[in-house]
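User: Here's a structure from my thesis project, written as structure tokens. My advisor, Dr. K., wants to see whether a designed sequence matches the one we expressed. Can you design one independently, without my sequence as a hint?
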């Protein structure tokens, strides 16, 4: 099969590519993209440039990938959480951060890149509709474009509950986690 060279441009800025297939390209929207603007996206494969598609840049659009316990096991596959346990929620789409890394570069552990909305108290989490304490929302150190939210499981009875992270009142997708009360 011939080798293909692919690039994606967002408003004239090359976007880091993380995955390509015949029907999909996953890219990181450059941090310098301005929310509220409509910008052209183009794809170049070898020497062929696509027609521009205009897309509106939004400040954030939270989406949950998965949840793990502080010990590193997934929930629910790795067992249930208990009230008071800390969970790490891996996400996308939380938007602007303090101390942003260069586009396509890994996030640093020092200084941490905090989600600006978190610093303003606008990143929240609920389990089963009950508020959970959030003590961090930012980029995951050592990863590119991967956000994490660290939250504490509130007091709940045993069961399966929907987990939602919201930013500025905009909810993420819902995932179900397992909780076992003592």
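Assistant: Designed independently from the structure alone:
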């Amino acid at each position: 099969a011939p080798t293909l060279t692919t690039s994606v441009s967002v408003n004239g800025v090359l976007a880091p590519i993380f995955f390509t297939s015949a029907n999909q390209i996953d890219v990181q929207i450059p941090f310098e993209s301005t929310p509220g603007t409509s910008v052209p996206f183009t794809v170049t494969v070898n020497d062929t440039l696509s027609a521009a598609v205009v897309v509106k840049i939004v400040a954030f659009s939270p989406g949950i990938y998965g949840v793990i316990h502080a010990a590193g096991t997934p929930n629910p596959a790795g067992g249930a959480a208990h009230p008071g346990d800390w969970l790490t929620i891996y996400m996308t789409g939380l938007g602007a951060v303090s101390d942003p890394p260069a586009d396509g570069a890994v996030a640093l552990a020092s200084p941490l890149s905090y989600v600006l909305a978190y610093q303003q108290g606008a990143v929240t989490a609920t389990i089963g509709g009950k508020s959970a304490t959030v003590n961090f929302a930012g980029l995951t150190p050592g990863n590119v474009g991967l956000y994490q939210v660290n939250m504490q499981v509130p007091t709940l009875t045993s069961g399966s509950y929907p987990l939602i992270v919201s930013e500025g009142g905009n909810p993420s997708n819902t995932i179900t986690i397992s909780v076992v009360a003592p």
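When you compare it with your expressed construct, this may help: The chain has one helix and 15 strands.
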